[in-house]
């Protein structure tokens, strides 16, 4: 057996660089688009030297915050529909623990992310080293162990030979459709530098095959029989449709053949073009009037590739009356809430179910009603995004102006967001006709994802305009990767809608009967000078981007043209009416409202919640 002598770090980097994936056009490209790294003690000497030697084969990118670079890597994988990914390396202490939020984001959203944090010395000879977390009861615990609950697979490399097993396992978890999520390989800093005679064949180039599990015939027959018995069926399209190779095409064929209306989850938006006659739009808490009306009437709901989280199901009260049928590659998701399940890839499952249904089509009256509701919502949407409802510009008007700023925006733009009011507004109002045109992180709803995520999405899809829509609250959480986008020449447009606080949670607080408290600047405890007047334009310019502040929708529309023409990342800041959001649509959402309160408003809100809770499926 031929061997090659390399350090653990060198072997790891060489192995990652040898992993390939077949692109849609038949060509091969590397599975890993690069490695993000902020060097510190624990990764600079071992892994850093290895990355330097391979910098022409596997590029290394530097960011400004470990959470930011891991969020960028997560967005990169999402924009590639989980077909390509990135790795992230940090030091042993704060750099490592800064990864926890990003790892949780990838974990909840079932997105691949390889984490390579440095770790303490395995020999413990120099302990305690700088940044070492010492557990008084377990000598084997380090800061890296914080990543265990937010990793699909975790391993600590204590001897070189371990990599021969750990790396293939890591690739399997990162690329398996059901197990997909973050993988952590903890790398003690002394072990990184240890040399070993590796089999040369371990570094042979490999093309990863993405599995698409087929459906079992008994499950297909069961779902087909239940769907045929339905008079008012509906489909809920989830992110699994987009991640399935051929899933989008399969869903379009299924809907056209069988005449069933579709509601979209946040993750599933974009699988059908916005003007598909049977697309009712978003469903659930942030749903459209059309989709939620159909959901309330449906007697069967076919959930395809969705986790059925509370926002999609109206806390399991929106279509609790319907028979639940699920197609999901993950058993954990497929069996939720007592539905009849088919464990299969979305494309394989839909095609098998369609074949079993034969020429069956939904009831003509139900299909006609669905088409009427869908068409009515599209006409209503066109009015909402241009009509003024408040003294200040509204979120809806800003969304409409972004879409109007490019004639081909429905096909070529990627709008990206994660938290606050905008996910609800965009879920209802953004129009896209191309998969991936709607990039929403709403599994974890991670404030701070937006700018970093925009950078990752742009690196994945450089030919498309990436428009980050973000509130002032999320922007203030994590904005420094705007500087990274400038440094890397990866232009993004940031539309910052300033409502002077956390307006979304402020509305929820009031809806739960609470007094306005600690969310908007005007309701926060401040010093004698009050809340700061933040100049977001100057902030963005200080990070190297171009920027401007506008005060009206008309000014904003002109600014969007300048932003599109710019070669550099561009921020547009505009004040918006914080309380005003699109009232059309929506459904109940369960929140823990106190049983005891001195406030009448809280007691009344609790009574309403108790009544709504009776409608839940279980």
Automatic annotation (TrEMBL):
Annotated EC: 3.7.1.22
Organism: Vogesella facilis
Matching PROSITE patterns: TPP_ENZYMES
Stretches assigned to the Thiamine pyrophosphate enzyme central domain: 221-352
Keyword flag DNA damage: no
Lineage summary: Bacteria, Pseudomonadati, Pseudomonadota, Betaproteobacteria, Neisseriales
Pfam families per the UniProt record, alphabetical: TPP_enzyme_C (PF02775), TPP_enzyme_M (PF00205), TPP_enzyme_N (PF02776)
Family in the record: Belongs to the TPP enzyme family.
Descriptive protein name: 3D-(3,5/4)-trihydroxycyclohexane-1,2-dione acylhydrolase (Decyclizing)
UniProt KW keywords: Hydrolase, Thiamine pyrophosphate
UniProt GO MF annotations: 3D-(3,5/4)-trihydroxycyclohexane-1,2-dione hydrolase activity
Superkingdom per UniProt: Bacteria
InterPro entries, per database record: DHS-like_NAD/FAD-binding_dom, Myo_inos_IolD, THDP-binding, Thiamin_PyroP_enz_cen_dom, Thiamin_PyroP_enz_TPP-bd_dom, TPP-bd_CS, TPP_enz, TPP_enzyme_TPP-bd
Domain Thiamine pyrophosphate enzyme N-terminal TPP-binding intervals: 46-131
Gene name tied to this protein: iolD
Enzyme class: hydrolase
Gene3D superfamilies the UniProt entry points to: 3.40.50.970, TPP-binding domain
Domain Thiamine pyrophosphate enzyme TPP-binding: 419-573
